[in-house]
Specification:
single chain, CBS-domain, Tetracycline Repressor, domain 2, 3 domains, three-stranded mixed β-sheet
Length: 486
Amino acid sequence: METHASKVADESNYPQGNLESRTGHLDDILKEKLEKAFHKQTSKVRLHDLAKIACEHSPIDLAYAASHLPPNVRPVLYENLPNREAKIKFVVNTDSDTRLILFRYLNDLELKKLFEKMPTDEAVWTIEDMSERRFRRLMEQLDTKKASRIKEQKKHHRHSAGRLMTSEFFAFKMDMTIGEAAAYIRDNPRIDFLKGIFILNQAGELQGYVPARNMMINPPNIPLRQVMRSILHKVTADASREEVIDIVERYKISSLPVVDIDNYLIGVITHEDVVEAMEDLADETIAHMAGTKEKFTSHDSVMKRFLTRSPWLLATLLAGLINVGVISSFQNHILTFVIFFVPLITGMSGNIGLQCSTVLVRSMAIGTLSAAGTRRETIIKELGSGIFTGAIFGVGCGVIIYFIDLFGGSSLGIVPPFAVGAIVGIGLLGGCIAGTLLGVFSPLFFARIGVDPAISAGPIVTAFNDFLSLTIYFLIAWGISSAFLI
């Protein structure tokens, strides 16, 4: 049955390919409806309207819209979802803030019913927002088998293959026929057979897999060994998230098996899991490049936000004070007009440095900078690009400043106009070279010492680049101006 949400999306005036605008338009409609159902003036909820909205729209869309609701209304929206399956989708797809509110609101029995039907991998991921005391209490109430699977998967590192995998999959012995396997699949509709149908030997070791298409086009009496294919790629549970992403994206694998040291199949990572991991990795990289690792909820105080961001801002503040010292040290040795071009030098060199570091951080994140040859080639190209850009803009800026000084007299006639152009042009080139070197080598340095290289792309490059570019610029200005004043 077609939902109202899909109708709204189909009837929107956005282009067919612009999915971001379509979903954004739907979010706006849902937000408006939910706000109408909640009277802000009286703080009352119109339950009839809220229940109607919950039935008409997808629980996934409602999960995204819930973050715009007041905290006390979100559990009410959850309670009005039509069935248990919809509630599971809502909890899995909503934000951490809403999950925290729900876990405080829901009683133990409701949580038990929720997690009993939830896939193990999604349960482990969702439990991250639950207090340790509540988690232990939930494990005591769940079915022993389900609780043990959740605990076992939760032991793995947060960013490992063991956390990404699902323990619900189909695995059959080689001698089983297609008909017998199909009957078992029909009896277990909750497990998605598109995740993969894996084949084991008599000892339980992973031997191969059977594409879903082969299960449908072959007679039911054929043994699975005759239609299975070899496993070319697999990982262990301790493999990193980046390694999993690299394998799945490079070889376009729909499902990646996870095995232990004895080659026993313990889980499966689907392409959907990898996409979510890529989104998380991108979010973390962007946060690091901005100089923060923050992950706040609406209940977190301003002080907590300040304490999280302040270390990087403190580094920038100290670098700024050092820059003041650099300027004051040269004030008696350089001409006043040189100071006017400081924003130009620091701005250009800083942007070039950030461009170089961002390209390298991205290459590291997606795994394209792992080979020595590729790394050397990328470094050489980025260095060449930064230096060439600095040369082009340096010459162009020097010519412009020459004509400005020739007709405007910005140097007040103290040095010739071509010397003014040379100071700014060569200074800009020197600053851009400094920014390029810092932008290229700082991510590599941080990666070598075991620190996330993304942190160097933001505040580190910005702070130290200003110091280096200013020092180089003032030295060039001092040298050139001294030559003409002697």
